[in-house]
Amino acid sequence: MSEAQKNRNHLWQLIRRGRPSVAAFSVAVLAALGSVAGSLWFPIQTKHLIDQFNGGGIDLRQVALVAAVLTGGAAAGALSAYMLARVGYQVVAALRVALVEKLLRLPVASFDSESSGERVSRVVRDCEAISELITKQTINLVTGVLLLGGSVVVLLLLDVPLTLTLLGSVVAAFVVMIPIAFLLDGLSRRTQDRVARMSGILTHIFQEIRLVKAFTAEAHERRRSVEEIEDLKRLGLKTARISVVLEPLMGLAMTLAIIIILVYGAARVAAGEISIGTLTAFILYIFNVVNPLGQLTNFTAELQKAKGASVRIAGIFAEAEEASTPQPASRKPGGVLEFRNVSFAYGGRDRIVLNGIDLRFEPGTTTALVGASGSGKTTVLSLIERFYEPSEGEILYYGRPIGDYPLPEWRGGIGYVAQSAPVMPGTVRENIVYGLSGTFSDADVRSAAERAGALDFIDHMPQGLDTVLIEQGNNLSGGQRQRIAIARMFLRDPDILILDEATSNLDSETEHQVKLALEKLMQDRTNIIVAHRLSTVMHADRICFLDNGRISGTGNHAELIASHPYYARLVQRQFQQPLEVESLEAG
Prior knowledge:
Structural class: alpha/beta
Low-confidence stretches: 577-587
CATH class of the largest domain: Mainly Alpha
CATH superfamily of the largest domain: ABC transporter type 1, transmembrane domain
Number of helices: 18
CATH topology of the largest domain: ABC transporter transmembrane region fold
Number of domains: 2
Strand order of the largest sheet: 6-9-10-3-11-12
CATH architecture of the largest domain: Up-down Bundle
Largest sheet: 6 strands, mixed
Shape: elongated
């Protein structure tokens, strides 16, 4: 199968995925037929009207008929355009829903290869290209083919020599214009790709605007954005240069066709071979020939653009989703979580992040992971959450591979409190119950907030639980975001609790308040802590020291001081020489 055939198949499959309404499409086609019939009939009626005038009188009924034909054709065309627009927007809406659902089912690794802005562009701009094809260009194709074919038939019936003259002049012009139209198509697809790239860059900049300003990187980001904008401008100017050639050519073709028909037709009228009414009809039919050819050219260009968009969208639909479990095991709380000889390397990278590690997380205990930046701590958490699969080895729960458990059920038993404690757009209440199934009353939400130490500041907010949080929770302090995340965990009631640098960015007083909330939350759970402050992990039941993807030491705080020189040196520096702290950053 050729590449062009594959592209057409991708486009057709995407349109079918949108489940277009057959009834609405049928109404659109029937209305288009009515519009075409009106366009074909109008010049003939005009011919009769003019011939009657030359005979010495005008039949008012004939005038009324011409007006009725014009009005009816216009109304039918409007109905056809509206019904097809309904079909198109229905298809694109369904396609966007399916695309969003697909993106949400993709593994985290899929988002490592393309920026979020580019993915958004696939949902918005690429779907718009398909929408344009369905809502506008398809009806142009249908009416253009019918109108062109019908006009040629009627013209041949009126006068063959004049028809051949008309077609010859118009076709000659379009032979020149079609290659230019295909140049526009290539530029259009390149523009789509550049817009997607610029969307990715700008999305990242605006999401991290505080980082940009904190590091006075406005000039750098401006230069980077200007480069993309200039590239888009250059593509736009190329498109404009071709368009300014193409559009006058179309106008010139129309003018030349009219002049040729007028000169040749006038000679035929003078010779008594045709009537003035017939010549008038021919001039009117010029528009019925030239306009459809233009529509067909536009359809071809839009089809190529839509096929390019469909290839990119089809690529997303073809990506492997997060692993499903054919025969899922029932997940019971309180099991031992165990890593056995687990190794891992991120896709496309040679460096092994974890190398044959063995870990055991017992129920009702707290295990801390410490180590230098890049030692693999965060990767361990990602493997537990099943964001990635181990390259080698296995992770077990109750002695069974964690892949045997349904993914929603598995993640539903894990609570994750991150360093940044991200906040989603919405109210405080919506953030506390975020991702939780079931219905929670105000009393449930307030109880969780109180246990997390968050109720006091929530009650002081303008609308309490119904206060809307701005993007990334920037109207909350770091400690407040952490306590909302902890309140969510109280409602979630997870079996396994992961605390990833949960107190690293807090001042002493706020850290104390958050620690009190965490102590309540950690009771009777399997707790896994990642922290670079040793004061946070020194009371853990078990501390595992990661070094370059391997576990170089295991034990409680006292045992590691005695057996692990590097850990002992860090403890000495952090607690005895605070000005020379060698902190352990999140890995």
